Every structure is written in structure tokens, then in C-alpha cells.
Amino acid sequence: MFAPLNELFDVAALSQKLCPEPIQAELLYATPYNFIGRPIAGYVPGVKDFALLTRVAAEALCAVQNNLLQNHNLRLRIYDSYRPKRAVNDFMAWSNEPVANNEQGRFELIRKKIHYPHIEKNQLFELGYVAEDSQHCYGHTVDLVLIDDKNQEVNLGACFDFMDTLSHITCTAADIGEEALHHREILSTAMQKFDFVPYVKEFWHFSHAEKTILEPIDIIISEDLKGLNVV
Q1: Nearest to 39 by CA among 228, 224, 221
Q2: What is the tens place of the pLDDT at every residue in 60-97?
Q3: Pairing between strand 202-208 and 196-199?
């Protein structure tokens, strides 16, 4: 479960060189503001303003950013990219734990209302919203949304990590509205143009077709990896 650090690149830093406006990164799993309600194992808390991908995926994502800027005046914000294997193990352990009777447990229930209001946490894996063999651990997969020129997330019909049928890419305008569907189509079209493959249950989740790392990685995301391999 290891790949040399020279195979991963900070796409946020790379985009400063390859794009007229850089790609934003906000790793929500390094914060409490995710579906669990605390920083996730493998993410140093508060270290959230960069994102790691393989070279081919990072360069392709910069091409997506340029396409969106030129054709739609829209930009990308990454909420997760490379994910340490220990984070997935953390998800799995948490999904089988009872909700604690303390402040953390109460905050977990607040996050449940935001991210999975219609199911229970022990269903997340079986329903395909979290995977034991996560493609994020191979460095070619990214979770992202569109933002406008005021750095505001555009209407996409549901929030990131909303684990519900409203997040499926098969949704229609009757499900999420014309505006949200239009924005999802813009995102998906741009990503697929540069060889990213969508995931049917999550409109924000894309894996690059070229998978260059073949074993899951478990390198902790820490401050010293910011700007990795970008000269």
C-alpha cells in the first residue's frame, strides 16, 4: 500500500502554472464539515488547501479548468482527490460504530441530516456511496464541484457527499431542476472531454481513465506535501 511520492502532484499548485486561474482545493475530510463530522484519519486537521493526483490526472484536470473558464466562465473546486487507505478504513470502522452519547455524537447527527438523511450510516458501503477499495487511494480520482467568478458553488441539485438518489447522474430536470441539471451537464461534459469517467451515484466523483498507480496508497496528507513535485 505504497507508491513513491514522485508519482503524485499537487494539482492546485500545478494549475497556478497551467491555468489563468488556479483550481481551488478545500479538503473537507481535513475538517469536521464532512459526513462523519470530524477530521478523517490520514488527513492532518486543517491542512486542506491542496490536492494530490497522478501527473496524467492533474494535467487533465488543468485542461478541464481551462475549458470551463473559456467556455462557461466557471471554475473547479476540489473537495477530495488522493485519499489515504487509512481514511477508508476509518470510514468502515465508523460506519459500524453506534453514535456516541456526547457532543461529537450530537454533531454527527447534525451532519447526518446534511449528508445522508434517508439512510443509516451502516448502509453507506452496501449502497455504493463509500467503497472499501476506493479509487481515490490510487491517485487518479477526484471529487469536485463548479464555482462561479465570485467563488460561490453553483446550483448542482445537491451538496457534495449527499448520499441519496438526488446525487445520481441519472437525475432529470424533474428531480433537480433545469439549472442544476445544466450545471451537472457542463461539469460532466468537460470532465469526460479530458478522459475522466463519471460515477453513476455521485455527480461530483470522476476517475481518470489512465490509472498509473496499481496499489492503494497510504501516505498521510500533511503540510509538507503542499506543492508536491511542482517546480
Answers
A1: 221
A2: 999 999 999 999 999 999 999 999 999 999 999 999 99
A3: antiparallel
C-alpha cell at 136: 481515490
pTM exceeds 0.85, yes or no: yes
Return the C-alpha cell found at 193: 472531454
- Choose the catalytic residue: 103, 120, 202, 215: 202
Q: Which domains, ranges and CATH numbers included, belong to the chain? A: 5-225 (3.30.1380.10)
**Residue 54: φ, ψ to 5°:** -65, 160
DSSP label of 127: T
- C-alpha to C-alpha distance for 180 and 171, rounded to whole angstroms: 10
Identify the band that residue 22 occupies on the pLDDT scale cut at 50, 70 and 90: very high
The CA distance from 11 to 3, in Å, is 17
Res. 3 pLDDT band, cuts 50 70 90: low
Is 202 catalytic? The answer is yes
Rg of the chain, C-alpha, whole Å: 17
